[in-house]
Predict the 3D structure of the following.
Amino acid sequence: MRCPYCGNDDTQVKDSRPTEDSNAIRRRRVCNGCGGRFTTFERVQLRDLIVVKKSGRKVPFDREKLARSVTTALRKRQVDPEAAERMISGVVRQLESLGDVEVTSEQIGEYVMDGLKGLDDVAFVRFASVYKNFSGADDFQSFLTEMGHVDPSLPEDEG
């Protein structure tokens, strides 16, 4: 494993243990060149997935891109990082178990929204606002009403 600090190929594993959900191995490493310490994760990958974008373009599935989008939605929220990692792993397992090598970006978005809904309401709405391309406050209102979070019969605030 290459050191992320100095690029040296000579690194050593100091500690290995399963993650909380036992779907990965967490390895603490030290670089024999610069002494830098870092963590890597080893996961089982059942198949190489291809994402079919809305435009029809096909790109390889990138778990790290998925993790970045979830992390962005969860920014400044009080959510356990292990719970977020379990949710991401669950989304990946769902995608791999579909039985098809190709998955649509819509499928990924729906699985992430389902996962975030159970993790944090604010992160769920943040992700949905980007995924569903909200353009104004009315889009948020409609979405929350559709999701059952706002009673449409209540009068709007005239403040």
Summary: Residues 8-44 form one domain.
